[in-house]
Amino acid sequence: MCRLLETICLKNGVPQHLAYHEARMARAGAKVALLPILENNHTTGLVKCRVIYTLEGIETIEFQAYTPLPPRTLQIVEAPHLAYPLKYADRSAIEALASQKGVAEDVLITRNGYLTDTSYCNVAFWNGAEWLTPEIPLLEGTARARLIVAGKLKPAPLHILDLPTQFSLRIFNAMLDFEEGYTATTHVL
User: Fold this and answer.
1) Strand order of the sheet with strand 4-11?
2) All domains of the chain in start order, with CATH
3) Is pTM beyond 0.90 here?
């Protein structure tokens, strides 16, 4: 049985962007309405809600106070055969890549030289005119989907050779808001 994961941001008890999480769950084949489950959670501040589910239903829901600690340095790691089309609860393949970070705080994963994601975040690059995000990420994150729909990000094929032409790298996910401007630098060893 495949166990899947959704990480949902709660701000003072209010679940953020549930429609995007439910859409990703539906793409996996699960039909779950999250609002009735999360609307009376009585949390305060910034909270990370982890929902582990299967196609049969929700297994567990965990709430944890959250303090953003975005990585500031990234080690580029090549993973040509890694596929992560659904957000699996088992992250062992990604954790194996993250263990190759060396002195960096996280990894920037490439497939055949094309940029994808970090171990926890989608990425975007400012080229002086617009924010570009990898055309084929490892995981189509909910924040990424929302930003594309809003016209703030444009998917593009981004190769490791493009890195010197990009002016800024921004990392984001459901818990790290794109507008907060979390940036990182890459190390190429």
Assistant:
1) 14-15, 4-11, 46-54, 57-65
2) 4-65 (3.30.470.10), 73-187 (3.20.10.10)
3) yes
